[in-house]
Amino acid sequence: MIPAIFGIAGPALSAEERDFFREVDPAGYILFARNCETKDQLRALTDALRDIHGRDRLLISIDQEGGRVARMRPPVWSSYPAGQVFDDLYQVAPASAIEAARASAQAMGMELAEVGITVDYHAPLDVRRPETDDAIGDRALGSEPMQVAAIGRAVLDGLARAGVVGCLKHMPGHGRATADSHKEMPHVEASAEELEVDIAPFKALSDAPIGMSAHIRFAAWDAENPATQSPYIIEEIIRKQIGFDGLLLTDDVDMQALSGTVPERAERAIAAGCDIILNCWAKMDDMTGIVERCPDLSPRAKERLDAAMASVDPAPPQIDFGELIAKREALIAAAGVKA
To answer: What is the pTM of this model?
Structure first.
């Protein structure tokens, strides 16, 4: 098995993609709006991926947070609030914010599970600050670490109740970044003591099954390498200090914060200690290069992958979708928060 999660070019597999994926056996897949047209079409796509590998609990993932980060959109699928809404609600009624976030995530998870998606890259545990770049912005769940952890836990729980595995991101924290890592490398100059605030939510949720690294350079920990490619940050900060022993994915290695070719970026991330590479753009040359440069999935990473996919009930008890949406909306409205 190749330690990579690959993208797909369109709404259905091409013959070239099908043959390639069958041959190299990637750890999983990631979907984008280009892959999501109708419920029947998307279910057919995810079923085709499972048919290739012969395993029902295949890692088929998506970025579906709500707000502006939503690959599945109306009118086919529902819209969901951004993290800022739950932050605002928490300031008025903390318990209501937690319940609303859980209900919203469970409803979202039900829509994902219906079309065969098993992993959602949600929730972001980045602690927002005045200088936080808009790449995070209203996606953040708050500015106080334990609030972020509380709402984040509710999101993971809601997804799990729908049979979908959530993901902590972006480890060890994107809140101090003043640049967008999609476009350039963010540099964080905070001290190790100051960074305790940023890693606190991740510590609180360190038992989560999946986490995602940040393409950010932290001077206090490793002045030369971004977290994704830093052996020190992965081992000493993420694995030991945070205590995260789940499946560690990279953020998309096609992002411009990283240098070198995409296969070179992937190779350095695996060498640094990431379990799996996330490669989103379905470029056959890049995917082939990753296969050529990266070793097979390590036995420990395979254990983490299997544990992550077994961490939720794939056929949980069902609750009425409309009831979940109504519950979320009532909690928000009762506190006078603008959704």
So the answer is: 0.96
